[in-house]
């Protein structure tokens, strides 16, 4: 079996070698045989044809290169001119833009606020101009805001860089703080105005109380009228403690009332500690009512007029804490704290004035009584003088008569002594 395989392989190899020899013969063993000779001949022909074509192309290139050179030169010159023109325009635009920016920046540097730059185009310089215009607008807004703040308007709006960034947010924060300062300042101004009103009203009330009045009722009426008008209240009345001449009991008597811009002649009398007025008198403290029923003033308060929104009761206390009565005030508006303070201090002054007025009247009564007693004493003194003169005359007469009697007694004693001596003498003889 092995031998047959080897024989078959030799046969195959022989066949392949013969085929290779045939191919080699067709290709040719040198350049003059076979396919190689054909290729060399064709190569020579192709080479000759290429040389001719090359010569033709070279001639054509030489003829057209000059035209191309001229065309290229013209094209270059044209392009260069266009480029130069474009560069000139760009240069002018850049120069103009830079000068405009430079002038604007110089004005900004001097503290001026120039007009916005007119923006033409859409390039980097335009972005710079836009930024400078934004800066100018922001500075102008800052100036306007500063002017408003300088004029005292702390509530003016501020819009600098959209209220962003360090400057914008800083100004916005400053505005907030200025608004807080403005609110506090307004509170202080209002408080000062309220305090000024309080001091002026108390001063006017004191002048009114120092004026001459015929009696306590006139004094109280002038005060209640001034107090009601000064506070825009609705009505008011003053109750003073009085004593019943019959049983000697104390009671509250409405001595003066004022309502609806006119004097009211109303007679009211309450027990000393009756109702809300009596409670105010007993507590010696202010009573302030805001939740008032519709019939409250007709049932409880002393005036019995109208339907107020609030009622204020103030005790009439002197500086020595002596209670003299109660003042009642009714108002359609809620009485604020500064008005309550006015009523409280004013009632202290009123109570002191009433006390002082009563003391003056009492002193006048005492002086009148003492004057009457003095005149009576002077009359008695004159009568006593006359009696003394009569007594002196009687005394002198009695002294004279006493002297006469003493002389008579002495004479009688002498006579008796003499008689007694004579009798003794006779008896011895």
Write the layout of secondary structure elements.
Elements: H1 2-27, H2 34-109, H3 124-150, H4 165-210, H5 216-231, E1 235-243, E2 250-259, E3 262-263, E4 269-271, H6 275-283, E5 287-289, H7 296-299, E6 310-317, E7 323-331, H8 337-428
Antiparallel strand pairs: 1-2, 1-7, 2-3, 2-4, 5-6, 6-7
Helix pairs in contact: 2-3, 4-5, 4-8, 5-8
Percentage of residues in helical conformation: 55-70%
Largest sheet: 7 strands, antiparallel
Low-confidence stretches at least 5 residues in length (pLDDT < 50)? 298-302
Counted beta strands: 7
In short:
The chain contains eight helices and seven strands, in the order H-H-H-H-H-E-E-E-E-H-E-H-E-E-H. With 429 residues, the chain is of the alpha+beta class.
Overview of the molecule:
The protein is of the alpha+beta class. It is 69% helix and 10% strand. The protein has helices at 2-27, 34-109, 124-150, 165-210, 216-231, 275-283, 296-299, 337-428, and strands spanning 235-243, 250-259, 262-263, 269-271, 287-289, 310-317, 323-331. Strands 1, 2, 3, 4, 5, 6 and 7 form a seven-stranded antiparallel beta sheet that branches. A hairpin with a 2-residue loop joins strand 2 (250-259) and strand 3 (262-263). The chain is rod-shaped, with a radius of gyration of 69 Å. Mean pLDDT is 76; it is low at 298-302.
Q: Which descriptors apply to this entry?
A:
429 residues, alpha+beta, 8 helices, 7 strands, 69% helix, 10% strand, rod-shaped
């Amino acid at each position: 079996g092995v031998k047959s395989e080897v024989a078959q392989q030799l046969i195959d190899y022989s066949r392949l070698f013969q085929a290779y020899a045939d191919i080699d013969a067709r290709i040719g063993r040198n350049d003059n045989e076979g396919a190689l000779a054909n290729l060399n001949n064709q190569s020579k022909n192709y080479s000759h044809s290429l040389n001719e074509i090359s010569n033709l192309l070279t001639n054509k290139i030489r003829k057209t290169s000059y035209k191309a050179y001229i065309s290229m030169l013209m094209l270059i010159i044209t392009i260069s001119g266009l480029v130069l023109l474009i560069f000139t325009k760009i240069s002018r635009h850049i120069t103009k833009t830079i000068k405009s920016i430079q002038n604007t920046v110089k004005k900004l540097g001097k503290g001026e606020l120039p007009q916005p730059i007119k923006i033409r185009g859409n390039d980097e310089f335009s972005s710079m101009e836009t930024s400078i215009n934004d800066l100018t607008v922001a500075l102008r807004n800052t100036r306007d805001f500063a002017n408003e703040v300088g004029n005292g308007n702390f509530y003016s709006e501020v819009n600098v860089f959209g209220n962003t960034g360090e400057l914008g947010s800083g100004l916005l924060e400053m505005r907030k703080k200025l608004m807080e300062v403005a609110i506090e300042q307004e509170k202080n101004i209002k408080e000062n105005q309220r305090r000024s009103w309080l001091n002026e009203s108390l001063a006017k009330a004191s002048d009114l109380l120092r004026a001459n009045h015929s009696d306590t009722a006139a004094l109280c009426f002038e005060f209640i009228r001034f107090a009601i008008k000064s506070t825009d209240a609705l009505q008011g009345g003053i109750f003073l403690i009085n004593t019943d001449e019959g049983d000697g009991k104390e009671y509250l008597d409405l001595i003066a009332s004022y309502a609806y811009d006119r004097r009211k002649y109303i007679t009211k009398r309450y027990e000393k500690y009756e109702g809300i007025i009596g409670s105010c008198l007993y507590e010696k403290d202010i009573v302030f009512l805001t939740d008032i029923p519709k019939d409250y003033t007709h049932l409880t308060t002393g005036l019995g007029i109208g339907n107020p929104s609030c009622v204020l009761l103030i005790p009439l206390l002197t500086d020595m804490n002596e209670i003299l009565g109660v003042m009642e005030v009714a108002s359609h508006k809620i009485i604020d704290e500064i008005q309550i303070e006015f009523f409280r201090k004013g009632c202290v002054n009123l109570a002191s004035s009433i006390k002082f007025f009563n003391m003056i009247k009492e002193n006048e009564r005492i002086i009148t009584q003492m004057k009457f007693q003095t005149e009576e004493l002077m009359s008695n003194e004159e009568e006593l003088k006359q009696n003394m003169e009569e007594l002196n005359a009687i005394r002198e007469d009695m002294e004279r008569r006493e002297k006469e009697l003493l002389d008579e007694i002495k004479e009688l004693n002498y006579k008796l002594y003499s008689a007694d001596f004579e009798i003794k003498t006779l008896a011895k003889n």
